[in-house]
Amino acid sequence: MSLHNVPRQTQGWIAIIILTISASLAPIFIRFAQNEGVPSLSIIIWRLVIGALMMTPFAWRQHRDVIKATPTADWGWTSAAGFFHALGLVCLFFALENTTVLVNGALRRTSPLWTIILEITLLGIVFNRRVWIGVVMALVGSSVIVISGVEGLDVGSRPLLGAGLSLLNAITLSIYIIIGRRMRNDLPFLVYTWALFSAAALMTTLFGIATNVPFFGFSLMGYVWIVVIALVAQVLGHLSANFSVRVFPATYVSILIQLSVVASGVIAIFFLQETPTIWHWIGSGIIIFGVSILGFGRTMNDG
To answer: How far is Cα 60 from Cα 194, in angstroms, rounded to an integer?
Structure first.
């Protein structure tokens, strides 16, 4: 059966499942590449370049006329999405150098909180008391993880820096998702995703050249993990993310991938020997419960 014959909402659920799996595995693969001595910025550059190159022939073959006729304003919004995508990746990778996978995952998955805040301030949406209870719980959970990380964290020498970068990654992800939601009716899914990948790849490559970041000279396994990251996290993960926000509200998408926090933490126990403290798990649970309340409150408001 062709995917075109599958109901759109079912396609959205398939995208969510793929997104959740890729979001769970990506931090583990990133840590493997870092352990091979590949600099974080080098991983980011290759990840984006490979992703953009893989999508180029498909985008041009299917939407050549659309690409040529796209208004300048749409390219501007797409470039902005690419910028926040690139910035988010920088925050993610450097956060993983300073904190555990669980702490990073739990804090950056507060993105539903920041999505709602942006929707309130930029779009003037009013939310009920249930939403604000969820906001408080998400902040409490984040605080528990950050505070416990100071004493219990045994990966990285600057856990507070890692936590701060993880939170900034959550904010950039929220902006990235909101832009994608806005552009869902302006550009075809494939064109939008290819363009933002290309913009992000160009920005990070220029920054890498300016800062003398190495592009070559890594171990064979280092290159293997770079390719795995590009395929799983960049292509599968962000293709799924950009498609899912065309089917579901941005906040709803953020809520649905919360299980990737717990999954990443569990995987890290077995493959990275990262043993979370009880407070890390408690904080993660509070965040997941809090953002779940946020999502339910948003659904009630939408009626």
So the answer is: 10
